[in-house]
Amino acid sequence: IQRDLELADQIQRGFLPKQAPALEGYQFYDYYQPASHVGGDFYDYIQLSDGRVAVVVADVVGHGLAAAMLTAKMAAEVRLHLLSTSHPAEAITRLNASFARDFVEGHFITLAVAVLAPETATVTIVNAGHVRPLLLSGKGPSKSVGDEQVGLPLGSLEGPHYQPCTIRLSAGEKLLIYTDGINEAMNDAGELYGVERMKAQLRAAGDAEEICRRLIDDVHRFTEGCVQKDDMCLVCFGPT
User: Fold this and answer.
1) What is the pTM of this model?
2) Is the pLDDT reported for residue 213 higher than 90?
3) What is the 3 state secondary structure string of the chain?
């Protein structure tokens, strides 16, 4: 069983990108740490035919083998649908319909996809029940984006059509997409790390890697001595 779990971990990590996109004028940073051998968090970079790049971050409810199997299905299908249409909201609507048809009781997926158009620095965000992405400026508090357009998690209902939110990144701004294993990390007193403490770590300036490493290091200090209870994943990107 131990050997099988180790192999499952290797296979699942094979679904993840080997490197971030090499886009002139942009920086990317990603972090992924499952709570057990196999997890339910997922991220990917998908190069679209028109030069845009889709950044995907998802979280399957729970972790372990069942979550990993749903992650494998989602990894293949989200790429298929994003490459099949130029409209991210339509792609996620189709993806949701697929999961709703194959509904597994007690399981659903939250997902956020951000499609970056490098030439204009515009980002189209589609959110299926995921924690809100954060816009970081380095000059003040971060703010969540796309609150009004958040739809239902994937697989919970077949009918809904997802709505896009479009923003433009200025020089130095970054978009952070993360899973709730970060803000819901718990210390030995049973306290959650929380979004407010998270935002405090994100106020300082720096490149994408510096900002994210500072955040992850603070989460580890907060939870020192505690077993990690949920997968952690984030992707941060923006113009240099």
Assistant:
1) 0.91
2) yes
3) CHHHHHHHHHHHHHCCCCCCCCCCCEEEEEEEECCCCCCCEEEEEEECCCCCEEEEEEEECCCCHHHHHHHHHHHHHHHHHHHHCCCHHHHHHHHHHHHHHCCCCCCCEEEEEEEEECCCCEEEEEEEECCCCEEECCCCCCEECCHHHCECCECCCCCCCCCEEEEECCCCCEEEEECHHHHCCECCCCCECCHHHHHHHCCCCCCHHHHHHHHHHHHHHHCCCCCCCCCEEEEEEEEC
